Amino acid sequence: NPFQRARYMLSAHNIGQLPPDGGFEVAFAGRSNAGKSTALNAICQQGALARVSKTPGRTQQLVFFDFEPKRDEAPGNRFLVDLPGYGYAKVPKDLQAHWQAFIDRYFTTREALKGLVVVMDIRHPLKDYDLQMLGYAANRGLPAHALLTKADKLGRGQQMQAMHAVSREMHSRFGDSVSVQVFSGESKQGVEQARGVIAGWLGF
Ligand code: GDP
Q1: Mean pLDDT, each 10-residue run in order, the chain (204 residues)
Q2: Among the atoms of ligand 1, which is closest to the Cα of residue 31?
Q3: What does this protein do (predicted)?
């Protein structure tokens, strides 16, 4: 599992602080409390990898994780990028505007960005924020993959029903570049499937 080598690299609060463009990166988006940190930790098989994204002051930054190179391997240019979950209500208006502009610029200009993972609570999918992020990806022809997480809270039948409903809605809004799966950071359901999608985008 190459994701086990993921490690915190840097946090960027403006375009100038991003690592050089030109590699391969996958961005993770999700509303606050959707389960994004838990999903990242499960995918990377690390207990507290994404905790850094939650430290005060980092909640409005892009948090980059790189991969520790294997012995005799050149330092890589593959990254996972944790986008701020929006706690809009808690954020001052000028910071919201800055964040919007930053994310907008990141999505429209970042060449290294190869795919978007949107983490949504399976019981509350496709809220405004999720649609906005999926819209950014679709506008650029970037593939997006939705993780319907906290699936352990539902039975199998309800999971499948939710997945088909979200799949239908995503395809009708955003076309063929979107996919969706059931996930649980708690039970680890769907973790391998998610790794497969992300590894493909990163060229692992
Ligand atoms: P984030 O704000 O999106 O990073 O969300 P967190 O990963 O911190 O999770 C928010 C809350 O949901 C925490 O209390 C987690 O324990 C819980 N949670 C996250 N993923 C799951 C899951 O797959 N199943 C269940 N039952 N709870 C989860």
Answers
A1: 95 94 96 94 94 69 93 87 74 79 94 98 96 95 98 98 98 97 98 98 95
A2: 3
A3: Necessary for normal cell division and for the maintenance of normal septation.
Distance (Å) from CA 34 to ligand 1 centroid: 6
What residues does ligand 1 touch, defined as CB less than 6 Å away?
30, 32-38, 85, 149-150, 152-153, 184-186
ipTM, 2 dp: 0.99
Q: Which two tokens stand for residue 119?
A: 């983490």
Q: What are the chain's domains? A: 2-202 (3.40.50.300)
Ligand 1 pocket test: pick from 36, 38, 58 the residue with the most ligand atoms within 8 Å of its Cβ: 38
Q: What would the two tokens of residue 144 be?
A: 């997006």
- Residue 6's pLDDT is 97
User: Closest ligand 1 atom, CA of 185?
Assistant: 23
